[in-house]
From TrEMBL:
Belongs to the sulfatase family. Gene3D superfamilies: 3.30.1120.10, Alkaline Phosphatase, subunit A. It comes from Pontiella desulfatans. Residues 30-364 form the Sulfatase N-terminal domain. It holds the Pfam family Sulfatase. This is Choline-sulfatase.
Length: 474
């Protein structure tokens, strides 16, 4: 049985700032690899019980380390969540409230900047989506803010989404965003060369599976830096639309229609590259000094979820919604020889927890002047706590469309305002008794509704002060 939080841990978790706790025993400062998929629902992985999807390497990673059964993205869409992974802060603190509406501020202290001060080599690979990666592309939505401005020594990145197969080519039949509803199949995708490597446009090795394209850049970085501690942030585009798989992966799912084959196939292709990474770490002999984290950035795609292709598992909602299906994501971590195999946690954890955890692992002292919203995951992984000990806040705002979704989880209760365009409604749910969010308790539990509403307002005000400059020196 896991114990309740002790007084020392509770003291650490009071308020927004959580200072590092004692770390797991390790031979030396570990390498850190942060892996993230894009729009992969909680149910879209074998280790969460999907009956068809083949994800053997992720399943083995979860089995060999810790599986987080209640892991939350900081927002129900990509850019805000990505920033939370790098800063340990709620997206509303740094002003990225939706996709393509801002860029990461240089005033934020990122995990890459932290680790570089600790002697780490730092590399970013994949979908950035926290600002434009080419200055000439930046326009009226967001601004130029590539990984190099935020602590990464080496980077291979796109600004936003690309097709998951042949990333520089528009898929046949694609009439979604960027197409003007016209089939531009076979034509260049947004210019045809979406990747930038250390500031230079990339024109070579961009064919086939996009996850393989990314991993082909990750492994040389690790090989080059295996003699020193390193941070590799690996953010795949899979399975964000345009969702395309190669024929060899589609054939793995002969009973599915074309859309399902592409969706399942590209996830299996990404899983294959995660397996390739894990195998290379073992081949280099550094797996026992390397921590791998994996999660998705939000729930499954709206359209694919509504068609029954993408899955939030048993949870209500999908991407762009404040329900559990929009926020809960598949997640696991592996550290051979340190994390006990077969560990499973149902403590509510989040993408904001990466920074305080990694700060602890690396010996970095978090700034007392900068509010950090996450907790150290190490006591969770060790089974020393049975609850989070502090609230979780989520937000998604695009006021021009009337979208202002927000949620607060306090213990097992969730206060939630839907992200409906044109205005939402506020609900109260008991997630322990009603994980499917079917019964609104706002009328039957008015005192709880009032207390959580006041707490939500306090956090929103704190975030607004951060967003308006309280945390930065001007």
């Amino acid at each position: 049985m896991m114990k309740q939080l002790n007084k020392r841990t509770m003291a650490c978790m009071v308020g927004a700032l959580c200072l590092p706790l004692l770390s797991l025993a390790a031979p030396k400062t570990p390498n850190i690899i942060m892996i993230m998929s894009d729009d992969q629902g909680w149910g879209d992985v074998g280790f969460n019980g999907h009956p068809e999807l083949k994800t053997p390497h992720l399943d083995d990673m979860a089995k060999s380390g810790v599986r987080f059964d209640r892991f939350y993205a900081a927002a129900p869409l990509c850019s805000p969540t990505r920033g939370s992974c790098l800063t340990g802060r709620y997206p509303f603190r740094y002003g990225i409230l939706a996709a393509h509406t801002a860029g990461m501020r240089v005033g934020e202290t990122t995990v890459a900047e932290m680790l570089r001060k600790q002697g780490y080599a730092t590399g970013f690979f994949g979908k950035w989506h926290l600002g434009w990666v080419r200055m000439e592309d930046s326009g009226d939505r967001g601004f130029y803010s590539p990984p190099s401005l935020h602590g990464y020594d080496e980077w291979f990145a796109t600004t936003s989404a690309v097709p998951t197969w042949d990333p520089g080519i528009t898929p046949k039949g694609w009439k979604g965003f960027g197409s003007g509803k016209t089939d531009l199949g076979g034509q260049p995708w947004k210019g045809g060369f979406p990747y930038v490597h250390n500031g230079d446009e990339v024109r070579e090795n961009l064919k086939g599976d996009d996850s393989r394209v990314i991993m082909d850049r990750v492994l040389p970085f690790i090989q080059k830096n295996k003699g020193q501690p390193f941070l590799a942030t690996v953010w795949f585009h899979t399975p964000h639309e345009p969702c395309v798989a190669g024929e060899e992966y589609k054939k793995l799912y002969p009973k599915g229609g074309n859309a399902r084959q592409n969706y399942y196939g590209c996830i299996t292709a990404m899983d294959e590259q995660i397996g390739r990474l894990r195998a290379e770490l073992r081949k280099m002999g550094i797996e026992k000094n390397t921590v791998l984290f994996f999660c998705s950035d939000n729930g499954p795609s709206d359209g694919l979820a509504k068609k029954g292709i993408a899955s939030a598992g048993p949870f209500k909602g999908h991407k762009h919604t404040m329900y559990e299906g929009g926020l809960l994501v598949p997640a696991c971590a592996e550290w051979p020889g340190t994390i006990k195999p077969g560990t499973v946690s149902d403590v509510r954890c989040s993408t904001v927890d990466y920074v305080p955890t990694i700060a602890n692992l690396s010996g970095y002292k978090l700034k007392s002047s900068l509010p950090i919203d996450g907790i150290d995951l190490l006591p969770v992984i060790r089974g020393e706590v049975s609850g989070r000990g502090q609230d979780l806040y989520f937000g998604y705002r695009r006021l021009i469309q009337g979208t202002d979704g927000k949620a607060l989880i306090s213990g097992n209760f969730k206060l939630m305002t839907t992200a409906d365009k044109g205005g939402g409604k506020t609900y109260l749910f008991d997630l322990e008794k009603d994980p499917g969010e079917t019964t609104d308790l706002s009328k039957s539990m008015p005192e709880k509704f009032k207390v959580l509403s006041e707490r939500l307002a306090e956090i929103e005000m704190s975030c607004q002060l951060s967003r308006d400059g309280a945390d930065y020196k001007y």
